[in-house]
Amino acid sequence: MYVEKFLERIPSLLNKTYVVTGANSGLGFALSTLLVSKGARVIMANRNPKRSEDAINKIRELYPTASVMVLPFDQSKKDSIEAFVNSLISHNIKPEGFVLNAGIYSPAKDAKTEDGVALTFGINYLGNFIFTQTLANHGLISAETRLIYISSPAYSRKFSPQILARAISGQKITRPKQYAVAKTAQKIFVLGLMTKSPLIPFDNKGKIYLYHPGIAVSNIARFKWKFFNKIVHRFMSVFFHPPEKAVLGALVALTTDKDLNGKILVPRGFLEINGIPHIKKIDEKLLSHLPYLITETLKLI
Ligand SMILES: NC(=O)c1ccc[n+]([C@@H]2O[C@H](COP(=O)([O-])OP(=O)(O)OC[C@H]3O[C@@H](n4cnc5c(N)ncnc54)[C@H](OP(=O)(O)O)[C@@H]3O)[C@@H](O)[C@H]2O)c1
Hints:
alpha/beta; eight-stranded mixed sheet
């Protein structure tokens, strides 16, 4: 009911196309469903064909005429990101917006990308950087294109070159800290995009939004033991908000007329879980980390 009321305030998205990364589960799936409900065409950028097929079937059960398709996309792999962007171009698709949602929280301890970067950093930050750069270099970002980055309440207060090096290597750092450092690096990068920093090494024209969903029920906590996953999921369902409520901020970011440069959309309420997004300022001091973040990033790609 609450979500339905909120959706009445969102304009029709008929004839608009949006890419949502990591759309077969959790927030990405919920957002794709809401976008379809407003008439948009959705391109899911997913890495798992079976889960993608299930996700599309679920959406079509609700909206039989839904315009939704999947294109393969693995945010941990440069080649896959490049192939995804090329397939948008070959399908002649120039989306109005991209929602950079794909992310992980706790992969296997020593999991790495093909290039040897710790997987949490490789997906949650580096993949965002490479995807944005690839879109820009292929001319898919105009001044009207919206890019929405899914942030997190997780935050590294002690961000520094040393902590960054640990998150990149995955050495001497816990998994929750790796996640917090990767999401902080993402925030610094996004602030660099918003402020049109000359340090960003590509032409950076789009409208940039940062949004965090609070804590939402999803599949983000994935442990080895299925039974444990179920318990975590039950616990989250009691205390945190459902994904369709948690993604309302992304819908706002895709449709608002406001300029939200230097700001982040965050759900209101205790523990930031009551869905309705409000606007907070991003700490500009974070920009002091941009020079070494970009230097280290360019060494990795
Ligand atoms: N849930 C929360 O409380 C919360 C809070 C703050 C921020 N977030 C952020 O919200 C975003 C979505 O997470 P979620 O909570 O909805 O979790 P989720 O249910 O696990 O969804 C994550 C999605 O990302 C995809 N993904 C993971 N690695 C990928 C890769 N290398 N390439 C392409 N797709 C990949 C997953 O695909 P597979 O199914 O193939 O793994 C899945 O579709 C993440 O960026 C997360 O950091 C979540």
